[in-house]
Amino acid sequence: MAATGERKYEIPLRKEPAFTPHRKLKIVTVGCGFSALIFAHKLQHQHPELQELVTHKILEQRDDIGGTWLVNTYPGVQCDVPAHIYAFPFDPKPDWSHFYATGEEIQEYIRATTKKWNLDRDVHLKHKVVEAMWQEDRGQWKLTVENDGKTFVEEADFLISGQGVLRTVAVIGNGSSGVQIIPALAKLEGTKVVSFQRSPNYVYTHLAPASLLGRDDDSHNPAYSEEDKKRFREDKGFHRDYRRKMIRSINAAFKQFVKGSPENAAVTEAARKQMTEKLNHDPELCAKLIPEWGLGCRRITPGEGYLESFKKPNVTVVTNGATQITEDSVISADGREFKVDVIACATGFDVSLKPHWRMIGRNGVDLGKEWDVDPESYLSVAARDMPNYFMFLGPNAVIAHGSLLESINWTADYVVKWLNKVATENIKSIVPKSAVVDELISYGDQIHKTLIWSDSCTSWFKRNIPNGRVTGAFAGSALLFRHLISEIRAEDFEITYRGPNRWEFLGTGFTKYELNPDNDLAWYVEN
C-alpha cells in the first residue's frame, strides 16, 4: 500500500528553491476608501517583497478616491471619532484643525497621503464591478466591469471588498448624520427646522477633549493651536503618546458595553445627566430625546450643538416619525401635516453588508441572497462558499468599539499573510469551512447577549430589529479581534492545491536564503 501511495503522489522534482512561486497572483480590490489605500500601502511599502508575488488593481466606480468622505458632503458632516486616531496608521496627520475633523478635511488628508505614498498607482477610476462569478476549474473570479459605457471581463485570483460598512446617505432621522445636520441648519437665519425621529439616541461626550492636553476647556470640539500642531509635527514621540492615550482609553472602556454591568449603569447615568443639563432640564424635551435603554445599544454620537438646537424657537422635534411625503408636506405617523420647503433625509446608510455587485460563489451560491436576511461571516473577513474572497468591515466587524482604522489595518495584515502563503505554496483556493462559521456565529451570539448592543433599542447593529441578531458589531473587544486575526487559523479553511502533491513547494530542498553566500546561516543561534 505504501508503494502504491508513493506512486499516486509522485511528481517530478521542481528545480527551484523552496517557496518559489509558480506565478504572480492577480489581486483586485473593489472600492477606494481607507481600506483599499491601507491595503495598497501594505503591498507597495510595508511588504515590498510582495511585488514579486502579486499584482494589484483597485477598481473604483466613482471619479475620485475617498469612499465615504468623497460622497458625503451634507451640512455639518464630520467624523465622530477623534481625528488623531482616525488616521492612516503609517502616516498619522499631525495638524488636524479640531479634535473632531470635518469631512472636507478628512478627504483632503486622504488625497494628500495617497499622493505622498503613490497609493493611487494601481487605482482605476470610473470602473464599476457589476458581477463576480467564481470559476472552480480555474480557481479564479471572473469579474464583469463597466467603464465609460463599455463592459469588459477582468480575472482575479483574489477578490477583496473595500466597500466598507457605511455608504451613501440619503433631516429625517437622528443618527450620526442627523445629529450633525440639525445644528448646521438651525443656525441659518430665517430657517425653521422640523426634526422627525422615531426613537431617541444618546448624544454624549464622556470627557472634555482638551483635558488630554492638560487644559481646562469643556468645549466639545476644541481647535488645536498652532503650537499644538507644531509639537505634533516635530515631536513624533509626543504625537504617538497622545494617540496612544486616546486608544488606551477606548480599549479600557469596553467593560462599559457589558449589559447590566456597574460600568454601563454608571456611564448611562452620566450620559442622561449630561443630556438633561444640555436640554436645560426641560421635561418635555428630556422625555422625547433621552433614551430608556442603556448607553451603547445604538452608536454613541458626540453631536456638538445638537441638543442645544432644540431649545431654539425655530426648531421642533416630532417623535412619531415620518410616514408620507407630499408635494409640500411631511405627514407624521399620528396624521399631522407639516408644511416644508426642503427635506433632508438622514435616514441612515445602507448597512445591509451585501456586496454592491452580483456575486456568485462556489456551487452557484448568491452572496446577496444569502445575506439578504442574516449576513454571516468568518471574523468579518471572509464568507462561506466564497473562495479567495476577503472583506474589510464585513458582518460582525469591529465597528462599535475600538479604532476603526486600526481594525482595517489588522485585517490588511491578515490578508497579506494569506496571500504570502497562497503564492508560495501553490494553493488554488481557500474558503472558510461552513461548520466553522456556524460554530463561530453560535458562540458569538451568546457573547452578544451579554453586551449592550443587544438591548431593546432599534439599531443598524441589529438591522433595525429591536430584538434581532447583532450582525454589525464584533462579539468581543477590539483587542480580542486583533489577537484572533494576528495569525492564520488554517484549520478553519478548506485548502485546495493546484498540483497533485501539496508539498511540491519544497522544490530542491533548499531555501533561497541559504543559497546566497552573503547571508548569515547561523542567525538563529541566540546563546
Question: How would you describe this structure to a colleague?
Answer:
There is one protein chain. With 527 residues, the chain is of the alpha/beta class. It has two domains: 236 residues, FAD/NAD(P)-binding domain, CATH 3.50.50.60; 164 residues, no CATH class. Helices cover 29% and strands 15% of the residues. The chain contains 14 helices and 16 strands. Strands 3-2-1-7-14 form a five-stranded parallel beta sheet, with helices on one face. Strand 4 and strand 5 form a beta hairpin. Helix 2 packs across helix 12. The mean pLDDT is 90.
Present the secondary structure layout.
Layout (H helix, E strand, L loop, with lengths): L1 H8 L15 E6 L3 H13 L7 E7 L7 H4 L31 H15 L5 E3 L2 E8 L4 E8 L2 E7 L1 E4 L14 H11 L6 E4 L29 H9 L1 H17 L9 H17 L4 H7 L16 H4 L5 E4 L3 E4 L3 E4 L4 E3 L18 E3 L6 H4 L18 E3 L12 H21 L2 E6 L1 H15 L29 H7 L8 E5 L30
Parallel strand pairs: 1-2, 1-7, 2-3, 4-13, 7-14, 8-9
Antiparallel strand pairs: 4-5, 5-6, 10-11, 11-12, 15-16
Helix pairs in contact: 2-12, 6-7
Protein name: FAD/NAD(P)-binding domain-containing protein
Family: Belongs to the FAD-binding monooxygenase family.
Cofactor: FAD
